[in-house]
Design brief:
heterotrimer; A mainly alpha; B mainly alpha; C alpha/beta; B: mainly alpha; two-stranded antiparallel ribbon; globular; C: alpha/beta; 10 strands
Chain lengths: 322, 293, 253
């Protein structure tokens, strides 16, 4: 799929999402905010997975840092600005990701997956160990904060989420998308993909193997934290479940569902997964089974995900047209 | 002193169960290079089915003395799910490892709801006492004979597997296929059948371990995903693909768990995972594994 | 004439087995040095030592007068020593253009640019097109690495190495897996490219003695981990015993 087609589709997407609150019921509008949160986190995750070739099974940890960071900032430290919270959790995430990443990027494949899973679960156990701070099983409260310095006090929670906060998160996603687009299409981004395809050759063409992978890891962690803060704010709660390894697995699910070889795949994946899960949950209590079956189907039959399918269909259409 | 001995005994029992599952994992990884995230699901399946099986057995008047053999039989019976699941995994053998991980993760998700559907959301346990076999008491130290039997069974399996892999022709074929699949195929080995057999064996080890554990613990929905953590700690500490590693890793994890439950309950997962990380840093191949990283 | 790449009594052992011993050689400006020897003689070990993939067990390796011990491949390419591999090494999912660009980025010291656009970078673009032209890959620029023919992949491997603009290039059997007809074509392209690009020294590890005879200014022969000879071609090929050892004993008599 060529670049301008991608950009056009992205533009249409943004326009559609901007108009959504005017046409859709408040419930679905509210559902979009976790989508945005996950999408932001996944754009970072996919830098590591799709572009650098490293599969992390502990990424939920950074979403946890974001959510719990937001909780600490708002409930314990009384910080009111969400922007400040975002900056703080991204900084915290970077600091934590540096040593962990420095260790993990020395390994690839299954060892990288296991190491990240181990660190994720370690963080999870920390959350329970310090339950007097983190609330253990019940999680930690995230108080309502100001966005762009505005209080929106006259809006009740639902109005706030379907209105100002919706557009705020959409804006965050667009900014994240632009930044990630730049990174992915930069010289650094090219070296990442070279490292993914052939680390030996890439190194002999001047790409620092560990340093670049660490950079990708740290960037993905920061975005994970940002997404986690959005999620925490939306729910009003930082939930330890966010950090459990199955949640990290769910992130991978979303990335693969949307298509990890495509820039927009993660966003598509976040949207599809959330809508799917929502619909399935209202249809049956065995929605996990259906989701599992869908994941199996994708892995076996459609490894390029939805984006891949769409691209394939577009290619066939142009081929039959010529 | 005897309190310590009791703790160790408990740890060794847990290690025995862990070893069985880990041995299955090691076999499957060693021969097929598949990391099976659904091992915990097999374990839980064994537990749930074991309860149902024994329940039915009692209804039909089977003696309570046959508890242990009954559980073992129930575990082996579940082996029938091995071949179809292996067949499913076969579709992604030649692809990137990530896809294998994801496919087994999909199985984890599906199994969770299978358990919910068949056995409900509440934990299930075996109401007949495993104390039917009595308890050995020496002063303050006591250990149920059932636990001893399970430990013995695990040791038997360990030696049996060892002898099988090192001493028999089939065992040698397995090891050859593990070393070099292409070569084995060129030499006329029916790799497909070997893969199916190995995976089924691994499955049976997992389900039987789960069945054996039910007299002492309840089967619950969380069991599957929680167990994966421990099983992986065992395999990483011991070294991927190594049977001796499974034994060593199981003992280490089992004992840490037992010790921490008594002294520092919150530290249990922490301690295990700190050791996992330390192993991955200083000796990534694990205690007995070959260098892979 | 200044020495670019040299080894001083370098040796490598694995355990108690010495794969390479007491090896001293030098490559100077304007030289084309070929390294030959039967399989197992230690050629690959030498190449790995020269490019920093292996650490010497004895002696040292110097590039531009400085030791390369502990210097990683990236730093080494920055200093001006580049290597092409024996087994074809390319990026299966990147295009020819991107592959060459990866090298150009390193050369132009742009590797840490996270936010600048690669596609709009004229400096990179121009250089990529330049290198592609030298190696006859201009028509293949938008093709994905994995779809190229064997010969083209080989060309790409070498072309991307050249794009690093190195002082010394180390070619590890660059014509292996290539048909005899294409071999001379590739070598001529390489040498013309080297001259054009200002490559000051070439080290070639080769089995094909025709190529070695045709292009080298000096030939170094390795056998069983030790240096047998370090001679210009005319004196090298005048010694039948030498040739027999390097190529292998003739059958029968």
């Amino acid at each position: 799929m060529n670049r301008s087609a991608n950009v056009l589709i992205a533009l249409c997407g943004v326009v559609a999402l901007t108009l959504l609150p005017l046409v859709a019921p408040a419930y679905y509008v509210g559902l979009m905010i976790p989508v945005y949160g996950y999408a932001i986190a996944l754009l970072g995750f996919n830098l590591l997975f799709g572009y650098t070739g490293l599969l992390s099974f502990g990424h939920g940890m950074f979403l946890g840092i974001g959510a719990y960071g937001a909780a600490i900032m708002s409930s314990k430290l009384g910080v009111r600005s969400f922007e400040l919270t975002l900056v703080a959790v991204m900084a915290a995430s970077t600091l934590i990701a540096l040593p962990i990443g420095a260790l993990c990027v020395r390994y690839i494949g299954i060892f990288f997956g296991m190491l990240t899973l181990a660190f994720g679960m370690l963080f999870h156990s920390f959350l329970f160990k310090f339950y007097y701070l983190t609330g253990g099983d019940s999680g930690m409260r995230v108080a309502r904060m100001t966005i762009l310095g505005l209080d929106f006090a006259r809006y009740n929670k639902i109005e706030f989420l379907a209105g100002p906060f919706y557009y705020y998160c959409l804006g965050l996603l667009v900014i994240t998308g632009l930044v990630m687009w730049r990174i992915v299409h930069s010289p650094f981004g090219l070296h990442l993909r070279a490292l993914r395809d052939n680390p030996l050759k890439a190194e002999y063409l001047g790409a620092h193997v560990h340093r670049f992978r660490l950079a990708a890891f740290v960037i993905s962690s920061a975005l994970g934290a940002a997404g986690g803060a959005v999620l925490g704010f939306r729910v009003g709660l930082a939930d330890p479940e966010l950090v459990y390894w199955t949640q990290s697995g769910q992130l991978v699910f979303m990335a693969v569902l949307g298509g990890f070889s495509n820039f927009f795949g993660p966003i598509i994946g976040a949207l599809t997964f959330t809508l799917l899960q929502d619909q399935l949950q209202s249809l049956t209590e065995y929605w996990r089974f259906v989701l599992g079956a869908i994941l199996a189907l994708i892995v076996i039959g459609f490894p390029e995900g939805i984006a891949g399918l769409a691209g394939e269909l577009a290619r066939r259409r142009t081929r039959s047209a010529t | 002193m005897s309190a310590f001995a009791n703790i160790v005994a408990g740890g060794v029992f847990h290690a025995a169960v862990l070893f069985l599952v880990a041995a299955g994992l090691q076999l499957v990884f060693g021969v097929q290079k598949i990391v099976n995230l659904a091992c915990g699901s097999f374990y839980a399946l064994g537990a749930y089915f074991g309860i149902t099986f024994i329940g039915y057995a009692h209804q039909f008047g089977v003696s309570e003395w046959l508890l242990l053999p009954g559980l073992v039989v129930s575990g082996i019976l579940l082996g029938f799910i091995g071949p179809p699941i292996e067949r499913l995994l076969r579709t992604v053998y030649d692809r990137d490892e990530s896809f294998q991980l994801l496919l087994t993760f999909a199985l984890v998700l599906m199994f969770e709801d299978v358990f919910k559907f068949v056995w409900g959301a509440n934990p299930r346990s075996l109401d007949s006492g495993y104390l039917i076999y009595g308890t050995i008491i020496a002063g303050d130290f006591s250990i149920p004979v059932y636990n001893l039997l399970v430990i013995t069974a695990a040791i038997a399996v360990a030696t049996g597997l060892g002898a099988f892999l090192q001493g028999t022709n089939y065992g040698r074929i397995l090891r050859a296929t593990a070393e070099n699949r292409a070569m084995a195929e060129a030499l006329g080995v029916n790799v497909r059948r070997i893969y199916a057999a190995v995976f089924t064996l691994g499955t049976v080890l997992g389900t039987t371990a789960g069945a054996l554990v039910v007299p002492t613990a309840a089967a619950s929905l969380d069991m599957a995903i929680e167990f994966v953590i421990e099983a992986f700690a065992v395999v990483v500490i011991g070294g991927l693909g190594s049977m001796r590693g499974a034994l060593a890793g199981a003992l280490i994890v089992g004992l840490i768990r037992a010790l921490s439950i008594v002294f520092y309950p919150e530290f249990e997962v922490l301690a295990i995972y700190l050791i996992v990380i330390a192993v991955l840093i200083f000796r990534p191949a694990g205690l007995f594994g070959r260098s892979l990283a | 004439m200044s020495v670019l790449l040299e080894t001083r009594k370098v040796g490598k052992s694995f355990g108690s087995i010495w794969v390479l011993e007491d090896f001293t050689m030098a490559v100077g400006e304007g030289e084309f040095v070929s390294v030959v020897g039967p399989n197992g003689a230690g050629k690959t070990t030498l190449v790995n030592l020269l490019t920093g993939l292996l650490e010497p067990s004895a002696g040292e390796v110097l590039f531009m007068g400085e030791t390369i011990t502990g210097v990683g491949p990236v730093e080494l390419t920055d200093r001006g020593l580049a290597r092409a591999f024996q087994l074809i090494q390319i990026f299966p999912r990147l295009t020819v253009k991107e592959t060459i660009a990866a090298a150009v980025i390193s050369r132009q010291r742009k590797r840490w640019r996270l936010f600048s656009r690669l596609t709009g970078d004229d400096a990179v673009d121009a250089r990529v097109k330049e290198v592609a032209e030298i190696f006859g890959l201009t028509t293949r620029l938008e093709h994905i690495g994995g779809t190229l023919s064997q010969g083209e992949k080989k060309l790409l491997d070498v072309a991307s190495t050249f794009a690093l603009d190195p002082q010394v290039i180390l070619l590890d059997e660059p014509t292996s897996g290539v048909s005899t007809g294409e071999k001379h074509g590739i070598m001529k392209t390489l040498i013309a490219a080297a001259k054009r690009e200002g490559v000051k020294g070439i080290v070639l590890v080769e089995h094909d003695m025709d190529l070695v005879a045709a292009y080298s200014s000096r030939i170094i022969a390795l056998s069983e981990g030790r240096m047998l000879a370090d001679l210009p071609p005319d004196r090298f090929f005048a010694d039948p015993h030498l040739i027999e050892t390097v190529i292998g004993k003739r059958r029968g008599h």
